[in-house]
Design goal:
Layout (H helix, E strand, L loop, with lengths): L2 E6 H18 L14 E2 L1 E5 L3 H9 L4 E2 L4 E3 L8 H6 L9 H15 L5 E7 L3 H17 L4 E8 L9 H15 L2 E6 H15 L12 H16 L16 H9 L7 E10 L4 H9 L14 E10 L3 H17 L10 E6 L10 E10 L2 H18 L3 H5 L5 H19 L5
Parallel strand pairs: 1-3, 1-6, 2-4, 3-5, 6-7, 7-8, 8-9, 10-11
Antiparallel strand pairs: 9-12, 10-12
């Protein structure tokens, strides 16, 4: 009972909805305690500046209940503005969402036998997810410095979700780099591509038109990646076969040994029937970004593979071949003595109704620099032109905040681009 789940903004709560639906329906009673309190309530704080999404969340998650005091909602949005979300509303008409959230967080910490960390779900684009999410990470780090913070972050479409998305992404990424121990980064364009391929496998269209992909399908894919990584695995249970929720913190320990590089790329493949592990591994490998726009090959600092199967013996026979294939495909750096890790569990929670197996691979991968480079170039062009800056200055975001963020992401990009250099 050491984890606290924190869902911030529309995107964070929609991903959380899919996560809790999968988890509450499939996790066994013995493994509930990292995610549910002893009184049966879900270990999550849900925060948004508008009530609509959280209202739907509470209706959709049928086999679990959220604590009333952990539902923190406002009555007006944050205008897709990081500074507005970070600073909040200075009005007596609406009590600070930050204060209410931190009070709920304190009470959740006191319910724990031993608080070890927080998983925060949010986006880079919206004002609440990016701005309030950044502020909460900062406040939690200051109040509970010994606990881990793992961010699950959704990046906007490259073509544009909002005219302010580049500023919001710049500032939020810089805050995540400063205050989080690890960042699971999901790019909407890549998530849509993956969700589309899954829909195509399940749907036949006589017209040959590409089937449409809903936002729910994209959120379900992200939630499936989280389930593959965070659901209890046999490898991390106690001797009495009890899960204490070590998975997020062991993931950080395995994949983020250097504080300058902590952005993680995740892929998952789930297969029914008798498909070989080599075929499943090949499907995962196909999702890896190969090179940046300049043609430079990507590399990985470290890789974690999580294999779930109704019978783990076949995987154990293939384990060495699978890990070698992943090590080569992800181009693990030669100077890391232990670049690849493996967890196994004899149950596939992603598809427990039949014989199936899944492979979830998470890597500290240099493709994160591509996203940050794009954000830097577009945000710089806007900043140099003075575009929209008055919207941020209005809420106390000044030039030094932007300059610090530019410098932070520049250094991260430089670190990742140096991964493959001998």
């Amino acid at each position: 009972m050491s984890l606290i789940w924190l869902q911030v903004g529309q995107c964070g709560n929609q991903i959380g909805q899919e996560w809790w639906q999968i988890l509450s329906s499939n996790v066994t009673d013995a493994d509930r305690y990292p995610y549910f309190s002893r009184d049966g309530l879900i270990n999550s704080i849900c925060v948004d500046t508008e009530p609509k999404v959280i209202r739907k969340l509470r209706q959709q998650v049928k086999r679990g209940y959220f604590r009333d005091g952990n539902i923190i909602v406002g009555q007006r949005g944050r205008g897709n503005n990081w500074a507005y979300g970070y600073q909040g509303i200075s009005s007596s008409a609406e009590q600070s969402l930050l204060d209410r959230t931190m009070e709920a967080f304190r009470k959740e910490v006191e319910r724990r036998d031993c608080y070890s960390g927080t998983v925060i779900l949010h986006s880079l684009c919206g004002g609440t997810g990016s701005g309030l999410g950044s502020r909460l990470c900062e406040e939690i780090r200051e109040a509970y410095p010994a606990g881990y913070i793992l961010s699950v972050t959704a990046a906007p479409h490259e073509t544009g979700d909002s005219p302010l998305q580049h500023y919001n992404s710049l500032l939020c990424l810089a805050w995540m780099q400063r205050f989080c121990d690890g960042i699971l980064l999901f790019q909407n364009d890549e998530v849509m591509k993956r969700a589309t391929s899954l829909v195509e496998k399940k749907t036949f269209t006589a017209s040959g038109l590409q089937p449409s992909v809903s936002l729910t399908s994209m959120n379900t894919h992200i939630a499936s990646c989280l389930v593959g990584l965070f659901c209890p695995v046999y490898s991390l249970r106690t001797r009495s076969s009890v899960s204490v929720g070590l998975e997020p913190w062991e993931l950080i320990r395995c994949l983020c040994p250097m504080s300058t590089m902590k952005f993680l790329h995740t892929s998952v493949v789930c297969s029914r029937g008798a498909a070989s592990w080599d075929k499943v591994t090949s499907s995962v490998v196909q999702t890896i970004p190969r090179a940046n726009p300049r043609g430079q090959l990507h590399h990985s600092l470290s890789v974690l593979a999580v294999a779930r199967n109704s019978q783990d013996y076949p995987f154990l026979l293939s384990r060495d071949a699978v890990l070698m294939k992943l090590r080569q495909a992800y181009r693990c750096v030669s100077w890391n003595p232990s670049p690849i890790h493996c967890w196994t569990d004899p149950q596939n929670i992603l598809d427990p109704s039949c014989q199936s197996h899944s492979l979830t691979v998470c890597a500290n991968h240099s493709s994160a620099a591509d996203l940050m480079s794009g954000v830097l170039s577009k945000a710089r062009a806007m900043y140099d032109a003075g575009a929209y800056l008055h919207w941020y200055r209005r809420f106390g975001c000044e030039d030094h905040h932007f300059q610090m963020s530019f410098d932070t992401l520049d250094s991260v990009v430089e670190e990742y681009r140096g991964l493959g250099v001998p």
